[in-house]
Specification:
Blueprint: H1 3-16, H2 25-41, H3 48-56, H4 58-82, H5 86-100, H6 103-106, E1 113-114, E2 119-120
Antiparallel strand pairs: 1-2
Helix pairs in contact: 1-4, 2-4
């Protein structure tokens, strides 16, 4: 299923429940952040190795999958509300990031780009 088809399913689910009335852009953005916090909560007090194990563990992976799905669903609703084509936006952002983080200066580095300096610092 592609993003437009998935968005249509999410909208159908929402509309069957008459929830659009609660889905202002602000409310959707708040809800996305709450769901992202629930995803983050899964990492609390866990090491990187714990997280790797979680990704392959049945019940823990289900919790991770559910929170990722909640984040995606709210992102799709936000994009639909704001008239954003997420596929086009992601492609355009990759082009911007490629210019901002050229391979020559960014390969193997986790340093953040600093505006005005033109390179990763």
């Amino acid at each position: 299923m592609n993003l437009p088809a998935l968005t249509a399913k999410v909208l159908e689910f929402r509309d069957q429940r008459n929830w659009a009335q609660f889905h202002s852009l602000r409310n959707l953005i708040v809800s996305l952040n709450l769901e992202a916090s629930e995803l983050l909560e899964l990492t609390q007090w866990k090491s990187d190795s714990d997280m790797t194990a979680m990704a392959s563990s049945g019940e823990a992976q289900e919790a991770l999958r559910d929170e990722c799905a909640d984040v995606l669903i709210y992102l799709l609703l936000i994009a639909e509300h704001a008239g954003i084509d997420l596929e086009d936006a992601a492609r355009a952002k990759l082009v911007k990031n490629a210019a901002k983080y050229p391979v020559e200066t960014s390969h193997g580095s986790s340093r953040k780009y600093v505006a005005g300096k033109g390179k990763a610092c």
